[in-house]
Write a structure and sequence with these properties.
Elements (H helix, E strand, L loop, with lengths): L2 H31 L8 H11 L10 H18 L16 H22 L3 H32 L4 H7 L5 H17 L18 H4 L5 H26 L6 H25 L8 H20 L1
Length: 299
């Protein structure tokens, strides 16, 4: 098959299978807890149920609140086009495309935060403030880590950087560790956040979407699944050895994404959520890993 066709097929698989990542995480957590767990297709049932419902809007909100979920989903889907699958080049690839990737993710976060602030709720404003704080610490880790990989591989496009980065190299291992921490933070997973919590003092992402309902909430949940797939695919591209053929490369990356989802389930089953004051310490440690990788590359 044509490599470009395979790349678009991988995007189709991401759009179709992304909600299954939450099912894998829930099943792993259920095994640790000795429970049966929800059906594998439960995320699809939830999305279909939300799409059939109507949306409720407060009279205090403006068009920003309604546009937030749609624009958040659009930016996440656009960012997914920049991430390659193994040796398969991404559908959209050009020099320094990882900068656009970071800014698309930041733009989606901006729309989500703006929609939360548009409600005028101090509760949602608290979650938006925490989200912005965590992002300000996580984004430098992403930029510094990808810059270190670009320097080591001599490439500027993700489609060239990831296949050329050997997972056995110490610099790549350090960047992979840093991105693993950022993955958990960016996707609101334990130990940074609990997507299933309803405790007022510990909520971060969930508190920002409390006022969304119906199709808007479905867009938010689907965008979150795509974002988890994007970060998992980016990390799998560093950890999984590259495969030359197109079809095995696509299959290997997809299996790596689901394996990382299983690892997230293990982390959430064996760790507790840390205090909010400890979150900057974890992100600072991730930034230190990227900084050490950069030093090793440029020395």
């Amino acid at each position: 098959m044509n490599p470009m066709a395979t790349a678009w097929l991988e995007i189709g698989l991401a759009l179709l299978l992304a909600p299954l990542l939450n099912s894998v995480i829930s099943r792993v957590k259920a095994v640790f807890a000795g429970r049966q767990g929800p059906p594998l297709l439960q995320p699809y049932f939830d999305l279909a149920k939300l799409l059939r419902k109507g949306a409720v809007y407060s009279p205090t909100t403006t068009w920003i609140f309604r546009a937030g979920p749609i624009l958040g989903l659009a930016t996440t889907a656009a960012a997914l086009l920049l991430v390659p699958a193994g040796r398969i080049s991404a559908p959209v690839a050009f020099p320094a495309d990882f900068i656009l990737l970071a800014y698309l993710l930041a733009l989606g976060r901006f729309f989500t935060i703006s929609a939360a602030l548009d409600t005028g709720s101090s509760f949602e404003g608290m979650g938006a403030s925490r989200e912005a704080h965590f992002a300000a610490l996580a984004e430098p880790t992403l930029f510094l880590g990808l810059a270190a990989l670009a320097r080591k591989t001599g490439a500027l496009s993700l489609s060239q950087i990831l296949p050329a980065a050997s997972p056995l190299a110490p610099e790549v291992a350090l960047v992979a560790g840093a991105l693993a921490v950022v993955l958990l933070c960016e996707n609101s997973r334990i130990p940074f956040d609990d997507p299933n919590t309803h405790l007022e003092l510990t909520m971060v992402h969930e508190v920002m979407v409390l006022d969304h309902s119906g199709p808007d909430l479905a867009f938010i949940q689907y965008a979150a699944a795509l974002k988890l797939w994007l970060w998992s695919s980016l990390l799998a591209g560093l950890l999984v050895p590259p495969v030359a053929a197109a079809w095995p490369a696509s299959l290997t990356t997809t299996l790596g994404v689901f394996a990382l989802a299983g690892c997230i389930g293990v982390v959430e089953s064996t760790m507790a959520r840390v205090r909010l004051l400890r979150v900057p310490h974890l992100l600072a440690a991730a930034l230190a890993l990227s900084a050490v990788a950069t030093i090793l590359v440029v020395r």
